[in-house]
Write a structure and sequence with these properties.
CATH architecture of the largest domain: 2-Layer Sandwich
Order of helices and strands: HHHEEEHEHEH
Number of helices: 6
Number of domains: 2
Structural class: alpha/beta
Radius of gyration: 24 Å
CATH class of the largest domain: Alpha Beta
Helix content: 25-40%
CATH topology of the largest domain: Nucleotidyltransferase, domain 5
């Protein structure tokens, strides 16, 4: 029989998006098939599925005024004195000020209670509107299918939710970095004061 020499891209797709070594092994095991392995980065579907972070991104514009843009992220923590398990850190992007809220669960109700309360306090105290909320793709607030109460609330308030592209783990910018910095500082302070971990 005549040898088949289809393109590497075609064989890559036919074989269920195999990696280069597996594709070469398949070519060696098959009779009368000549293919060259394809690199994962050359296949857009494989690149998206295996992306761990966004490599190229525009620099973030500075928030034009206080509370115009906030970002938030959740961090698990050792059980607190009142049995809280999560810390929700909100960062006000204009000043860099951080606001910590301890939560019992990572549920939509708990997250909404904090974010709605924060938005109401900002309006009542400063008469300022939050316009943008930067966050990660947390499934509690942004489900894979449909819309959450959180998204409906944001739309009703005229707030834009900014998230990284799906299927990637782009860190939630400054809120995630700030949260990690807070955790590191708290460990240093606790350690230098010889305080117990469960304090």
């Amino acid at each position: 029989p005549q040898s088949r020499a289809d393109s590497e891209d075609l064989w890559h797709k036919r074989s269920g998006h195999l990696g280069p070594r597996a594709l070469q092994a398949l070519a060696q095991a098959a009779q009368n098939v000549q293919i060259k392995g394809t690199k994962r980065i050359e296949c857009p579907d494989c690149s998206t599925a295996h992306a761990s972070q966004v490599i190229s991104r525009r620099p973030r514009e500075r928030s034009p005024k206080p509370f115009y843009q906030i970002s938030w992220d959740l961090f698990d923590m050792p059980s607190g004195r009142l049995h809280e398990e999560w810390a929700l850190i909100i960062k006000e992007e204009y000043s860099g000020k951080l606001f910590n809220h301890n939560l019992y669960t990572k549920s939509l109700d708990e997250i909404m209670r904090v974010i709605e309360g924060f938005e109401a306090r900002v309006w009542r105290k400063y008469q300022l509107h939050i316009v943008e909320i930067q966050q990660d793709n947390d499934t509690a607030t942004r489900p894979w299918r449909g819309r959450s109460r959180y998204e409906e609330w944001a739309e009703e308030k005229g707030i834009t939710i900014l998230t990284p592209p799906p299927y990637t783990h782009e860190p939630n910018g400054s809120a995630e970095r700030a949260g990690q910095e807070l955790i590191t500082k708290s460990i240093k302070i606790r350690s230098s004061a010889n305080l117990p971990a469960k304090l």
